[in-house]
Input
Amino acid sequence: MHGRGNAILRFILTVVLMAGATLLIASFLPQMEAGAESVSIGLFALIPALFLVVYIFVTKRILEALVLASLMCFIFAYKWGFLAAFSESLTAVMMDEDTGWLIIVCGLMGSIIKLIEKAGGSLAFGRFVVKHAKTRLGTLLWTYLLGIIIFIDDYLNSLTVGSCMAPITDKHRVSREELTYIVDSTAAPVCVLIPISTWAVFASRLFVDNGLVPADQAMAYFVKTIPFNFYAWVALIVVLLLIFRVVPPVGRMKKADDRVKNGGPLAPAGSEKIDIRGATQNNVYQAVSEEIRATNASAKEGKMIDFLLPVACLVISTVLADVNMQVGVIITLGFMFVLYVGRGIVTAQEFSDCCVEGIKNMLMPLLLMVLAFLFSDASSSIQFTETVINGVLPTMEKIPQLMPLLIFIILGATEFITGTNWGLYIIALPIVIPLSQAVGGNTVLTISAVLSAGVFGSHICFYSDATIISSAACGCDNFEHGMSQMPYGLIGAGVSMVLFTVAGFMLT
Output
């Protein structure tokens, strides 16, 4: 109790000192003009981002870091009116169409996962995979393969693959950090390489909105970027090398591997807070009679169709609805009601109870993502991304061959801090496209660098949607997931930097 009191006191002192120092700095900065949405404060725009990263590394407390960094941004922008600005921004984020989509899709995906578990579909799928993948390597290769097959959307990919493979990899004593890294690395990196995906649809729409190509040529232009989306390709290769142990576990991944080999828990401490199954870190699933069986004693035996048909319905309905995942999850829930209740596997009451419980299990991941959106909105009020891009403009204008490399580095770092890949695309593409055309750069290669930067930053950021969703689906603390996969992300980034440099001089 005494230690907890000291921790609270330290936190209060931190907040007071941070607020005082921020207000002091803000008094020397330009005032936000009436009616303006942002203000340029120069290099001071980097301070909240640096505070955010340092605070997370020191305390490992991501929720607090996002709130405090957002407040710092609003103090810089609005001075003493920061609380009103904070409140308005939080309301705007909650009312935003993208946030509504996120809550509906992720919440209902939680319901779908819970229903598949309740109906015994997860158990049946576990039996099937265990029968065909009798080794640790085989199980990890199955995880990798499923991640590539389910390419429609990274949320769908992570939630489906993670939640289904966690109980199976548990049987082979695979750390949750390694499982989550594999799931995360076959989500966004795969989606950005496939023309029939939500990422392709979104990116091609931005090409049209920014006047790059007509609507009927947008998807063809996206296809041109695929060979040069270097980080996505490298990420898929590096994770496969880790599975085969050509690249060994290093850093926190090695610690996790050693922990599990020495009989420790499969998941790092604190993982139960984000686990969408709402289970404890030491006993999420158990092997019973050499089969994977859910701890939920009321789960049915189930058949493979109880797993395969809902997943197939989700993928097909999403594609037929013009890659609209919200429509896909709604159709799938209706299909599952007929499939499960109609066959007497669950009652109508059990069906509705599972839907509610599934949504409830998604609350922590959703809260993290909403706060990440809040920080992204807050940082835009002080023109954080624009400040970073403008810092390297002179070099890009003088040496256009280096433009893809510099774009990848700068936007990758920016995305790592803001955590919103699609939001980064919205901000960066209107700046990068005309700039590339003006300096005589290779526009396809430069746009590929923007797409790669979004995937890289999202991949290793502790609070990006990709990290949070993958962590929630696999049952792994998102900070530990981010830290354990960071060395591999940096390897991918290093190789990508070399490739963008070579391609920039060869193709520009």
In short: Residues 280-298 have pLDDT under 50 and may be disordered. DSSP finds 25 helices and two strands in the chain. The radius of gyration is 23 Å.
